[in-house]
């Protein structure tokens, strides 16, 4: 055996380094233990920051830029602190009601200022696309939706399901482009649905055109009178624990010859990724699926094309959100957050700083967005 071939074989016996999926039982167990140690260190940093430790943003970012390339390139198994991160869960979604409470049902005034709220581009809690030369966040979000339109092949007259439609930004923008498109939005967040119901009564909103229908509920329970020409889902699948069951449900809602477009945060490492901090405070039971996970699930839907969106796009988006969040402190600090505002502010800053910096590491080549075009298998 040559030395070039020997090291990959040797790696299965070594803990911490290499692909955790190939480890011997002893090396796997040791790697899982090391992952818990790494997660405990991140949690300790998060807790002291949230509780008042002053760390300059530049120092914080330097710490992330130093550590994450080592983990991405050499020890990706350490980025999965829980066993459930590595495999599918039993249900389509876990902790979904808790997720609405801690993330999506925060004060609308705060979210509007952080995410942006314009005439056609409503608050949108997913990345903008900056690589086409966007000058600002609103333009980056327009470019991102234009990319979805092109890759999904939306044509006038389509009936489209938006699974997890947020505040209705994507349907509103696409309805403004196509006078005969119809949209159905499916959303579990009551507060987001209330925002859209208000827009559905606003004559200046395309959601009031009569071509938008809103369904408040989850994918498991959703029933519709007709099948859809196109289905899109932006960012939701980080909160979906079982791709097999979710794709089976989406396939049942898709007409023959229809197409599904999924846009998710993804990692180009051998395993899926999460963290104790995001699980506890930001995205309960959320995970970033490995870039190959969606194409691997091809029982009911199959991937016919896919794209990787470089993580620098999300880095710029999160950096913009952080700057907007910081700039609006005077107007948002008196809103109701369910905790002392000073603590909430530090928790939110840690979240925006951490994720925004991780996306920028390794020139955005390891942590970014995956986009998948799917049809019936």
Automatic annotation (TrEMBL):
Species assigned in the record: Stenomitos frigidus ULC18
Keywords carried by this UniProt record: Methyltransferase, Transferase
CDD domains linked: AdoMet_MTases (cd02440)
Single GO BP term: methylation
GO molecular-function term, one example from the UniProt record: methyltransferase activity
Pfam short name (any one): CMAS
UniProt KW Thylakoid keyword: no
Top-level taxon of the source organism: Bacteria
Coiled-coil segments: none
The protein, known as: SAM-dependent methyltransferase
């Amino acid at each position: 055996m040559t030395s070039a071939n020997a090291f990959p074989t040797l790696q299965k016996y070594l803990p911490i380094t290499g692909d955790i999926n190939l480890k011997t039982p002893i090396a796997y167990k040791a790697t899982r233990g090391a992952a818990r140690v790494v997660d405990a260190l991140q949690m300790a940093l998060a807790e002291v920051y949230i509780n008042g430790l002053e760390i300059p943003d530049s120092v914080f970012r330097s710490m992330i830029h130093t550590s994450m390339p080592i983990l991405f390139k050499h020890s990706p198994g350490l980025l999965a602190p829980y066993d459930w991160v590595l495999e599918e869960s039993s249900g389509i979604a876990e902790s979904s009601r808790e997720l609405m409470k801690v993330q999506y049902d925060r004060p609308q005034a705060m979210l509007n200022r952080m995410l942006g709220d314009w005439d056609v581009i409503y608050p949108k809690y997913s990345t903008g696309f900056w690589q086409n030369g966007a000058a600002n966040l609103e333009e980056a979000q327009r470019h991102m939706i234009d990319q979805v339109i092109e890759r999904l092949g939306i044509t006038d007259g389509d009936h489209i399901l938006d699974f997890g439609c947020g505040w209705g930004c994507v349907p509103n923008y696409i309805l403004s482009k196509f006078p005969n498109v119809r949209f159905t939005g499916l959303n579990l967040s009551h507060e987001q649905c209330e925002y859209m119901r208000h827009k559905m009564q606003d004559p200046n909103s395309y959601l009031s055109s009569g071509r938008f229908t809103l369904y408040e509920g989850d994918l498991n329970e959703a029933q519709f009178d007709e099948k859809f020409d196109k289905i899109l889902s932006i960012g939701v699948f980080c909160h979906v624990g079982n791709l097999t069951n979710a794709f089976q449900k989406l396939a049942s809602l898709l007409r023959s010859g229809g197409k599904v477009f999924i846009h998710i945060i993804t990692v180009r490492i051998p395993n899926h990724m999460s963290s104790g901090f995001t699980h506890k405070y930001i995205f309960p039971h959320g995970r970033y699926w490995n870039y190959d996970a969606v194409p691997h699930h091809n029982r009911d839907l199959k991937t016919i094309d896919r794209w990787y969106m470089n993580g620098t796009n999300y880095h710029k988006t999160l950096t913009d959100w952080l700057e907007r969040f910081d700039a609006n402190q005077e107007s948002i600090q008196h809103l109701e957050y369910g905790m002392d505002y000073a603590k909430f502010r530090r928790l939110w800053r840690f979240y925006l700083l951490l994720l925004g910096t991780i996306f920028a590491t390794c020139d955005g080549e390891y942590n970014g967005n995956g986009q998948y075009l799917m049809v019936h298998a």
